[in-house]
Amino acid sequence: MPDDFKCGYVALMGFPNVGKSTLLNRLVGGKLSITSPKPQTTRHRLLGIVNLPEAQLLFIDTPGVLDPKGALNASLVAAALAALSEADVVVWLVEPRAPALDDQVLLPRLRRLHRPLIVAINKIDTVAKPRLLPLISAYHEMFPAVPIIPLSALLGDGVAEMVAEILKLLPASPPLYPPDQDTDSTERFLVAELIRERVLHHTSEEIPHAVAVQVEEFDEGRRPYLVKIRAVIFVERDSQKGILIGKQGRMLKAIGAEARGEIEALLGAKVFLDLWVKVWKNWRKDPRALRALGYRG
Ligand SMILES: Nc1nc2c(ncn2[C@@H]2O[C@H](COP(=O)(O)OP(=O)(O)O)[C@@H](O)[C@H]2O)c(=O)[nH]1
Ligand SMILES: [Mg+2]
């Protein structure tokens, strides 16, 4: 290990939907964090490890900065704040638009963190080039002496430049994880998340918020030939269960088929997925349920 090896935590922060999870996946070069156009897609702190010859970057994807309304939301905000407290560098991700009132409110909070900060303007693939320069200068004015990096998490443009800026700010430290590891999440957890993502893609309105997934059985006795997984999709009401199962079970079948494909890619094994839908009345307001479903320590 060279003496000048660097290692540290980098918190990916920003409003819901700005592209934090997409950026984390781009950085680790695989699918760790689920993404969707719906807010509250990310509910847990997720670690993505990037191993370079000269450094190990520990990216933390967070649920975003939300109003702590309701028990589930409160635990999401707690996860975001916990990520900040362990961060060596904070990447503040923004939409490719002029700074708005929201940003003005947040700015003092970011300053109070006393952490090295990088502002990343994401989704630049959606704006015309001539509009980009004024945007960058607007953020420069707001955050003097802070690197402003335009990038596209989706296409990868600018991501290497962001990593280069982060490397300048990371502390000297030996690596904290083995170099072949890309996360500290269990496969069980990642599998549950992939199933939840497929549910998000097929549903709308209140259902995405009312869904939690639990893997009840993970039998890898015959891996890589077969991994047998039994999972339950919990919803809050009978009507939601009906929608998720669908006419003649079609919706659940589609969700299961898509999830199985994703899980096989994740595990590098054939998967038998036994998927159930159950009602857990108002689980989001029930501290016992929140614990059982992994939303509280
Ligand atoms: N066009 C474009 N879309 C993006 C980019 N990054 C993220 N998105 C989309 O924005 C939505 C929210 O992304 P996600 O990563 O879940 O946001 P998060 O809530 O901040 O984690 C998804 O539909 C992504 O595909 C980008 O660079 N360009
Ligand atoms: Mg996310």
SS-derived structural category: alpha/beta
The tally of domains stands at 2
Helix residue percentage: 25-40%
Shape: globular
Question: What amount of the residues lies in strands?
Answer: 15-25%
CATH C-level class of the largest domain: Alpha Beta
CATH topology of the largest domain: Rossmann fold
CATH architecture of the largest domain: 3-Layer(aba) Sandwich
Largest sheet: 6 strands, mixed
Number of helices: 10
Average pLDDT, rounded to a whole number, is 88
Give the low-pLDDT segments. Answer: none
Which small compounds were modeled alongside the protein?
guanosine-5'-diphosphate, magnesium ion
The CATH superfamily of the largest domain is identified as P-loop containing nucleotide triphosphate hydrolases
Structure at a glance:
With 297 residues, the protein is of the alpha/beta class.
